[in-house]
Amino acid sequence: MSVFLRANWENIVMANYEMDPEILSKYLPKGVFLDLYEGKAYVSLVGFMFKNTKIFNVPIFKFGTFEEINLRFYVYRKIDNEIRRGVVFINETVPYKVVAWLANALYKEHYTTIATKHKWNISDKSKEIKYEWLVDKKWNSIELVAKNEAKAMVENSFEQFIFEHYYGYTKVSNTATEEYKIAHPSWMINEISSCTIDCDFQKMYGSDFAVLDNTKPASIFLAEGSAVAINWKRNKI
After folding, report:
1. Are 186 and 223 in contact (CB under 8 A)?
2. Per-residue pLDDT averaged across 18-35, rounded?
3. Which element (helix H / strand E) includes 99?
4. Is 198 exposed, middle or buried (0-12, 13-18, 19+ CB in 10 A)?
5. Which of 11, 52, 186, 190 could cysteine-pair with 222, CB 3.0–4.6 Å?
């Protein structure tokens, strides 16, 4: 039972915003530090599809395919000479209460449940990807058009910084943190032609993130995704 969850993550959209490190500091779990890119801290609004989800290798069928919307930021942990680069989630949103309950009960995550939907239009030349989520009776969304041709990420690029954090850190309390590992290959990315974001950050994520309502993202990325495995074992920090 070393692997808790297996799934495919597909068409992963990342809208990346520069953020005041002082705001993020209150969300830092014990034992990790903000991971900066060229001296700046970032949060990412993320939309993607969970598909073919299995818990301890058992398919969950009706609840195995769904959209996830989350807001995350980037951290690292030092262990002797090793640097573990990871993410912290402000919130993760899925449409099924049973999925949120499992994640919160077993792993003390920060999942909430609201209505979600998606629309994909994929041709030989382009991808049109849209994710939507319902907040106070209003559909929020992130929508983009990208080239279908995929390419590898450039070494030490901003894309690589955003996508290649392979640990997750959960703030259990002010004195306790849990660390888990996420396994997947380096993803291929698609060049984006246009993007539209309609997100009420204040209503969705709280007053600390209201500033993003009037902020343009520094960048927007699309990754094709892959099969993903999340270990059952969690290290307590």
Report:
1. no
2. 96
3. helix 97-107
4. exposed
5. 190
Measure the CA–CA gap between 51 and 191, rounded to whole angstroms. 23
* Alpha-carbon span 132 to 232, nearest angstrom: 30
Residue 93's nearest CA partner among 35, 142, 54 is 142
pLDDT tier, 62 (very low <50, low <70, confident <90, very high otherwise): confident
Alpha-carbon distance 206 to 173, whole Å? 19
Q: Look at the alpha carbons of 182, 30, 98, 129 in this order and tell me if their dihedral is positive or negative.
A: negative
> Tokens 């309390």, residue?
173
Question: What are the backbone angles phi and psi of residue 21, rounded to the nearest 5°?
Answer: -60, -30
- Is the pLDDT score of 1 beyond 60? no
Measured from the Cβ of residue 113, the count of other Cβ atoms closer than 10 Å reads 14
Q: Average pLDDT of the chain?
A: 93
- pLDDT category, 60, cuts 50, 70, 90? confident
Q: Which residue from 191, 195, 69 is spatially nearest to 133, judged by alpha carbons?
A: 69
What SS3 string covers 50-92?
EEEEEECCEECHHHCCEEEEEEEEEEEEEECCEEEEEEEEEEE
* Residue 37 amino acid letter: Y
Residue with tokens 């600390």: 208
pTM given for the model: 0.94
Which helix (H) or strand (E) segment holds residue 24: the answer is: helix 21-25
